[in-house]
Amino acid sequence: MDWHSAIKGFTMYLKLERSLSKHSIEAYVDDINKLANYTIQHLRDKSVNDLTRMDIEAFIANIFKNGLSDRSQSRILSGIKAFFKYLIIEDIIVDNPCSGIEGPKLAKVLPDTLSYEEIQLIIAQVDLSSDFGHRDRAILETLYACGIRVSECTELKCSNLFEQAGIIKVVGKGNKERLVPIGEKAIHHIKLYKDGLRNKLPQTKGHTDFLFLNRFGKKLSRISIFNMVKKYTLTAGIKKDISPHTFRHSFATHLVEGGANLRAVQEMLGHESITTTEIYTHLDSNFLRDTILAYHPRNNNLKLS
Q1: Which CATH superfamily is domain 116-291 in?
Q2: Which residues are known to be catalytic?
Q3: Residue pair 169/177 in contact by the 8 Å Cβ criterion
Q4: Among 42, 78, 223, 282, whose Cα sits 20 to 30 Å from the Cα of 202?
Q5: pTM of the full predicted structure?
Q6: What per-residue confidence (pLDDT) applies to 220?
Q7: Residue 103 pLDDT > 90, yes or no?
Q8: What are the residue boundaries of the structural domains of the chain, listed by start?
Q9: What class has domain 3-89?
């Protein structure tokens, strides 16, 4: 099979069978295109069916030589493994050339978090007298109140906001829906934005139900929210590397440190596995220490004997 047909079929598989987002599909396809280009340059345009384990290992060595980080190498290898798994499922190939190939060992990187005081300082930078002040304040309040991903924030719809119940319906990875509580302060600023600026924005077909809009009445992009967070962080004088995802990390960390049930945090974050959520128990050594002292049987009713 030629590369164009294989990649086209893989793209449809990711969209229809895996229900991945457009952004995720583009990342997967970009990884496979890297491999396809490598075969053109180094393997005499070898077809998908003829690739061997040695070819894949040579490709991995090539991207290592080009200076990609271990994390980037691991991500690319993961995408290629998914591609060849698809080819096996579709009976396009019999043997998987990726079988047994392992990526670089990745060091566990704990995410940056903000203290509650830093969150307040960033939010305080929003000028509510400016045209988009209430919108920006509502976005920051929602990111921290709900711990949603930036893509989930851009996709948030007015019809999925239940103000009286204090709940929002979020469409997460794989189009999976979940209900997330939202605090009164976030709801307050959303209402100010909806009743004010949002009513004055153009009504753009296909975008009227999205909550957070730009000046053209279209839903905000991920990069717009990213730049907005960067702007207010810089104004606040905070030197950390902050992104919208930092608000999500901070939301989870503050909940866990406050004693929230880990399963409840998992549900709110939309994590498939509890192990993904458990990273937040490692962000604060005091939290770990207090947990052990409170719950380990050797620390209860301590007696020297």
Answers
A1: Intergrase catalytic core (1.10.443.10)
A2: 149, 173, 245, 248, 271, 280
A3: yes
A4: 223
A5: 0.65
A6: 95
A7: no
A8: 3-89, 116-291
A9: mainly alpha
